[in-house]
Amino acid sequence: MGARVIISGGGTGGHIFPAISIANALKEIDSNTEILFVGAEGRMEMEKVPLAGYPIIGLNIQGINRQSLWKNWSLPFKLMKSLADARKIIRDFKPDVAVGVGGYASGPLLIAASQLGIPYIIQEQNSYAGVTNKNLGKKAEKICVAFEGMEKFFPSDRILLTGNPIRKEVVSIENKKAEASEVFNLDGGKPTILITGGSLGAKTLNQSVLNSLKELRASGVQIIWQCGSLYYDSIQETLKSEKDGIGFIRLFPFIQNMDLAYSIADLIISRAGAGTIAELCVIGKATILVPSPNVAEDHQTQNALALVNKNATCMVKDADAVETLIPTALEILNDSQRKEELGVAIKKLAKWDADQIIAKEVMKLVK
User: Does the structure show a pLDDT above 90 at 72?
Assistant: First the structure.
């Protein structure tokens, strides 16, 4: 009989993709491993995890609503109920070990695991740990981190620098440039900028591009632009009304074959989510990070600064982006030495096998 592992957390792709990578790595070590995911009802993991072939149970839990505090009145009741539900899930499944990847469901599940004597591991993706993980870290067997200097949040004797698990299929970009030129209908000889605001798009990045269409057109670059499904129709309309033509832009609500987009890009503009950064390090191309201001404890800025301090990226603040993002991008593209240096420096931070390292740590805890 194989090991029994519960993996909890989710909420965004940044939590879910690493969780699935860890699950896959556990199966590679021992195909008899039984894995159960625990997520939050109504969140992205309830759809993505079954697609990856794993069972999932949802807890009725939400985060604190910082915009509208009165909406939090039901939170204590939901927390008590989800703790009771988490205890029942653990008693029924009888795991040897639990893994928390962050997100709403992680808290109740790991608290319940601790109460029932089940050892657990935390995978902290960001360079700035949230309140929940800081508290959970006190009783964790191991805290697997992706950035240096995490001693300020966790007991130093239990920290393991593993990096963040990456989606291998997304970062395998070797010898795909010709295919990418064909798929995106682009000229392989022209400089190409990839702009991505994550799976939901990013309003600031979109406004920055729209604000600089004239400069972009004059510069002779090509653009692959993932704008998010929320913004796609309105941007499409705006571009159609441009009288000089926008044949140099390829606009998508969401890019399916991200490996091809990465392979043809000379410069990548992105938000600073920890999972994205892990992939960008492996890809090893010049990047500009624009941290999202709409995240807990402004952790994307901390993520970006960890790279800025190693001269491995250029950071543009969200508030300055509409004015300065595209001029900065064109400046880097025109300075081949700076472009080269950024690519080399970010590649040095790449960690390929985080999923395997974490999976081995999980297996060490199996009784």
Answer: no
